[in-house]
Specification:
This protein is of the alpha+beta class. The chain has 10 helices and 13 strands. Helices cover about 30% and strands about 25% of the residues. The strands form 3 sheets. Strands 5-4-6-9-1-10-13-12-11 form a 9-stranded mixed β-sheet, with helices on both faces. The protein is globular.
Length: about 300
């Protein structure tokens, strides 16, 4: 069964802020033993949201359904994921989202313990749901908020606020076909007790499994859409996997930063809108977290009109 993915909708934080204007930014970089150097680390701005979670999620849900040309009443499953699920303490949030957006048949699900890998995992779960015969259309959404002030500066990158949504379906002629997926974890890494050798082993294991699932080699990948880490870390992880820096989509690093679980879709959508790609192009999506890595292989379908 062919599983399609498309109608991607992205909502970045509504306020653009300068990283080096954060109060205490210089001290934060120093405490992390990092240079406050945009030229070296490739940062400039981050995005901060001033809106409530339900409004942000609602925006990407509406745009996704509009772009897909699918009625909310035809969605069988709604999967919401986040690297920080504290906003889900409001138990009325998800039922309210379903009701206010007409998702009256959709069964809700949340994936909340997989950090930044949760969105790719949710897309894979959506495909598994469809293959099992439980439904034909699944709406996947993510929401992340990166904290306050200097806490946005982390050892791996600068954190932005974002939400995303996409449709996973066996019915619609969507933008991409899902060819392969793999997701593995290392409990030591989740506790911050791993080393670079263990991380390299995890990276190689996950990418090899995703490519094998797709029945292809790394040489067939046209572009890689990964996590928006500081550039030296991003290129180190790419080199570890045998990926050249030129394959990485890096155009969102300076002014979008690290959007936690949404990065792979943020970067894919940005590339799709700016360059489009060719039908048949194959892409590797990656999502990194402490002790976790998810990789997914997509094939570009024939271009379709976008709204």
């Amino acid at each position: 069964m062919r599983i399609g993915l498309g109608a991607i909708a992205i909502e970045l934080g509504d306020t653009l802020r300068e990283v080096e204007a954060i109060p205490g930014a210089r001290e934060k970089f120093a405490s992390l033993k990092l240079p406050m150097s945009s030229a070296l680390l490739r940062y400039r701005h981050y995005r901060e949201s001033t809106l409530a979670p339900d409004e942000v999620i609602g925006r990407v849900v509406r745009r996704c359904l509009e772009r897909a040309g699918v009625a909310a009443s035809d969605i069988d499953l709604f999967i919401l994921t986040s690297a920080d699920a504290s906003f889900l303490a409001d138990r009325k949030l998800v039922p309210s989202l379903l009701a206010s957006h007409g998702l009256l048949r959709a069964v809700p699900m949340a994936i909340v313990s997989q950090e930044c890998t949760g969105l790719l995992s949710a897309i894979h779960t959506a495909g598994s749901h469809i293959r099992s015969g439980l439904g034909r259309r699944v709406l996947v959404a993510s929401y992340d908020h990166g904290g306050l002030g200097a806490d946005r500066i982390q050892p791996f990158g600068v954190v932005s606020d974002a939400a995303s949504a996409c449709l996973v379906s066996s019915e619609e002629p969507l933008d991409f076909e899902v060819l392969g997926f793999a997701h593995y974890g290392d409990v030591r890494g989740m506790h911050g007790e791993d080393d670079f050798d263990q991380r390299q082993a995890l990276i190689n294991k996950v990418n090899a499994a995703a490519l094998a699932d797709a029945g292809m080699s790394l040489g067939g990948i046209s572009k890689v859409f990964s996590t928006n880490f500081f550039w030296p870390l991003a290129t180190y992880y790419a080199t570890t996997a045998g990926i050249s820096a030129g394959l990485l989509h890096d155009e969102t690093l300076l002014d979008v930063a690290h959007c936690l679980s949404a990065d792979a879709l943020v970067n894919l959508d940005h590339y799709q809108r700016k360059q489009g790609g060719q039908a048949g192009d194959r892409y590797l999506l990656q999502a990194f977290a402490m002790g976790l890595l998810a990789s997914m292989v997509l094939e570009r379908s024939a271009p379709r009109p976008r709204t």
